[in-house]
Amino acid sequence: MISKSQISFIKSLHQKKFRKEHGLFIVEGLKSFSEFVGSEYEIDSVFYTGDLSPKLSKLSQNVKIYRVSNDELAKISILNTPQQLLALVKIPRALQVTQKDLKGAFHLVLDGIQDPGNLGTIIRTADWFGLKYIICSNDTVEVYNPKVVQATMGSLPRVKIIYTDLAHFFESAGLPVFGALLNGISIYETDFGHEGLILLGNEGKGISTELIKKIKVSVTIPRFGEAESLNVAVSASIFCSEIRRNS
Amino acid sequence: MISKSQISFIKSLHQKKFRKEHGLFIVEGLKSFSEFVGSEYEIDSVFYTGDLSPKLSKLSQNVKIYRVSNDELAKISILNTPQQLLALVKIPRALQVTQKDLKGAFHLVLDGIQDPGNLGTIIRTADWFGLKYIICSNDTVEVYNPKVVQATMGSLPRVKIIYTDLAHFFESAGLPVFGALLNGISIYETDFGHEGLILLGNEGKGISTELIKKIKVSVTIPRFGEAESLNVAVSASIFCSEIRRNS
Q1: Does B75 touch chain A (CB under 8 A)?
Q2: Closest listed residue to residue B33, CA positions, set B90, B107, B97, B89
Q3: What angle (nearest 5°) sits at the alpha carbon of residue A32, between those of residues A27 and A33?
Q4: Domain-wise residue ranges, chain B
Q5: Average pLDDT value over all residues in chain A
Q6: Distance, CA of A109 to CA of A116 (rounded, Å)
C-alpha cells in the first residue's frame, strides 16, 4: 500500500529535473534490480507485488520495502507491462576518470547520443564485450533516464559512465582516438593496437566539427547496400566486436 | 484540411487489425517517404504540412494529396515530433521466395522477434550490408507496424521481408543454417563459406526448440564481460559484419 503522495513523488522521477533534485532514479524488474543489489549503487526503496520476500531478504536494513498491488505498480511504472518490482536507487556522485584508469584498454566515447534506447543498448553491449568505461559528452542523454536504465537490461552497475567536456577529455586521456565516420579506412583493415577511444557521434548530426579534429584514425564500417547510415548502437557494437576479435 | 472521419481512419491504421482490413500502412517523414517513391510499393495518399509541393510533383496522378495543419498532422502521427509528412502506402501481396532467389548469398532468418524497434533496426542494418531477404517466422512482429517502418529509416523498400513457417522453409531453402546461440563456436573462427541463412531467436526465449534441430553450425559472439545477452539487433549486426568482412 502506498500513498497518493508517494505515487506522485515516484512519477516525478520520470523527469530529469526531479531525479536531479531528489538524487534518485528508477530501476524496474527483478532481474535488472538484482544486478544493483551488492553493487556500488545504494538502494533507497523497493515497491513489489506478490511474494518476493525471500529474494528481498538480502537487502540492507536501510532499504524501505513496500508491498503494492498490481494497480499501484502500474501507476508508478513507465512500462506497458510492469514487472513485479520497482526500486528507487540513489544517483551516485559524478565519476572521475584518470589516465591510469583508462590505460591499456578500449573505451567508448559518445558525442551527443540522444535516444535513450541507443544509450542503454550501448551500455549493455559494452558490458558484454567487457568494456569498463563509457565517456559521454555533457549533452548526451542522461543515463538515469528510466528508458536508458531499462535498455541496459541490468548492465548499468558494471559499466562506469562519465559525463564530461570531450574536447578537454581527449587532451588529457593519452589514448589514440578512433572516430566512426563515413569516409575513413575500412574497420576490417584498421589496426586498433591494444588501447584506444572509439568515438561515435549523434544519431542525426554525427561527430561534432570540434571533435573531428581530435580523431587520429577515421574508421568506416563498409557499406555493401544502400542504407544511408547505421543505427549508432549497431555501429558501436560492430566496433566492440572488431576490437575484441583480435584480443 | 482533413475530415474527422479521415483522422479516425488513419489512426485506426496504428492497429494491425485495421491495416490488414484496409491493406494500408503508414510511412512518416519526407526522407523515409522519398525511399518509397519509385519503389515497388504503391502510394495511396500523402498528408503534408508546409511547402513540399515541388518534391511531391513526381508522384503519380493516382496519389491523393492533402495539405494539413501541424495540429492535424499531430493527430494522425505516432511520433512525438511529427515530421512534415505522413503517407499511406499499400501493403503488397505476401512475397514468395525460391531456392534460386536465395542461392549464393546470405540471408537473415528471424524466429519470433517481438520488438518493433529491433525488427526495424535489423532491416536497416541488412540494407547497409546489402542483404536482400529477411525471412521471418509467422509470429514475428508485423513489418508494417508503424514503429517498425520508422526504425527502418527508409530501408524497407530495398529489403524483401517474407513471413513463413520456418521449419518448412529450412527444408526447402537448400542453404546451410548458422544459428546464433550461446554455446556454439566463436563467430571469429566460423567459416561461413559463400552462402547461408543466419538464424536469430526471440528476445527472451531465443531460438525455438523445433528450429534448433535445423541448425548446421551453432555460432556464438564471444562474451568478454558479464551481460547476460546481447540485444538481437546488435547480434544480427555483428553477424552481418562478419559475413561481409571476408567478402
Answers
A1: no
A2: B89
A3: 60
A4: 4-90, 99-245
A5: 94
A6: 16
Output the pTM of the full model. Answer: 0.96
With CB atoms and an 8 Å threshold, state whether B234 touches A234: yes
Q: Say what the pLDDT of residue A61 is.
A: 80
Please indicate whether residue A178 or residue A95 has the higher confidence score (pLDDT): A178
Looking at residues B200-208, what average pLDDT do you find?
96
Helix (H) or strand (E) holding B73: helix B70-76
Record: contact B228-A153, CB cut-off 8 A? yes
d(CA A160, CA A158): 7
DSSP B26-68: EEESHHHHHHHTTSSSPEEEEEE-SS-HHHHTTS-TTSEEEE-
**DSSP output for A154-216:** T-GGGSEEEEE-HHHHHHHH-SPEEEEEEEEEEGGG---TT-EEEEEEBTTTBS-HHHHTT-S
Question: Closest by alpha carbon to A23, among A77, A98, A88?
Answer: A88
**The two domains A4-90 and A99-245 share their CATH topology (first three levels equal):** no
Torsion on CA atoms A131, A136, A140, A143, rounded to nearest 10: 50
Determine the 3-state secondary structure of B74 from DSSP.
helix
The domain covering B99-245 belongs, at the CATH homologous superfamily level, to SPOUT methyltransferase, trefoil knot domain (3.40.1280.10)
Task: Return the CATH class of domain B4-90.
Answer: alpha beta
Across the interface, whether the CB atoms of B127 and A226 are under 8 A apart is answered yes
Residue B201, φ and ψ in degrees, nearest 5: -100, 175
